[in-house]
Amino acid sequence: MKVVHTKRCLAGVVLSLACVSASAESQFGLGAQLTPQDGITVYLPIKADAGILIEPFFAYRSEKSSMSTDGQDEISSKFTVREIGIGIFGSRAVSETLDMYYGARIGFINVKNTDTDYQSTPTQTVTYTGDGYVIQPTVGAAYRVTPNVSFALEVALNYTNVDTSEDSNFSSSTTDRTNTFVNTRSSFVARYMF
Questions:
Q1: 176, part of any domain
Q2: Which residues are CB-contacts of 83 (< 8 A; sequence separation ≥ 6)?
Q3: Left if phi > 0, otherwise alpha if psi is -120 to 50, otherwise beta: which for 3?
Q4: Does 22 reside within a domain?
Q5: Do residues 101 and 154 lie in contact, with contact meaning Cβ atoms separated by under 8 Å?
Q6: Eight-class DSSP state of 170
Q7: Geometric angle at alpha carbon 100, from 97 and 106, rounded to 5°
Q8: Count of structural domains within the chain
Q9: Which of 38, 119, 187, 190 is exposed most, by the fewest CB atoms within 10 A?
Q10: pLDDT tens, position by position, 129-171
Q11: Residues whose CB is less than 8 angstroms from the CB of residue 115 and which lie 6 or more positions away in sequence, other chains included
Q12: 5, containing H or E segment
């Protein structure tokens, strides 16, 4: 129930901000994070009046790993992360081609990790699934190559809180946990404004 309520609240915030910013002076665009270790992140930037940047986003990351001997898998793991949210930033021009922005991104996160041990008889599989939220205070500098194209470097403090549930095919019990992560991250972002 908590997850559904969080999704609805976030969707309401995104739609409200998009409607508020949709004035004749607003500029819309498309952006992407170009940092490979963070997977794929797509941004929908909206430059509103008075130096406000509103940026809904969607992120997806998937990793697979396995260990094998003589061509037979022994252990495999698949990890998937999905995020959806919005960034709200104050923006100001430092020079004709350089903008600084500062604010935060907030979003909903969904994670799934499946570990499989093929050496066990029968094969043992443990699946961790979870939902939570992410808050990222962010500061960035964007260099405008043309009036419509910019490349930015961002630095963020990443706070993630995820409630996970562990389930396996060899145990009838389920383990629930709350995981909290705090780290810093930097990323390279390209944006095109229409």
A1: yes
A2: 41, 57, 58, 59, 60, 107, 108, 109, 110, 134
A3: alpha
A4: no
A5: no
A6: S
A7: 135
A8: 1
A9: 119
A10: 999 999 999 999 999 999 999 999 999 999 999 999 988 877 7
A11: 75, 76, 77, 125, 126, 127
A12: helix 2-21
CATH number, domain containing residue 99 = 2.40.160.20
Residue 34 belongs to domain spanning: 2-14+27-193
Q: Specify if 70 maps to a domain.
A: yes
Amino acid at 103: G
Nearest alpha carbon to residue 81 among 56, 60, 64, 106 = 60
User: HEC profile for 91-142?
Assistant: EEECCCCEEEEEEEEEEEEEEEEEEEECCCCCCEEEEEEEEEEEEEEEEEEE
Say if CB 183 and CB 158 are below 8 A apart. yes
- The pair phi, psi for residue 48, each rounded to 5°, is -95, 175
Percentage helix, strand, coil, to 5, in the chain? 15, 70, 20
d(CA 35, CA 169): 36
Confidence label for 84 from pLDDT (cuts 50, 70 and 90): very high
Cα of first residue to Cα of last residue in the chain, in angstroms, is 39
Look at the chain and count its residues.
Answer: 194
4's tokens: 């559904």
On whether residue 140 sits in a domain, the answer given is yes
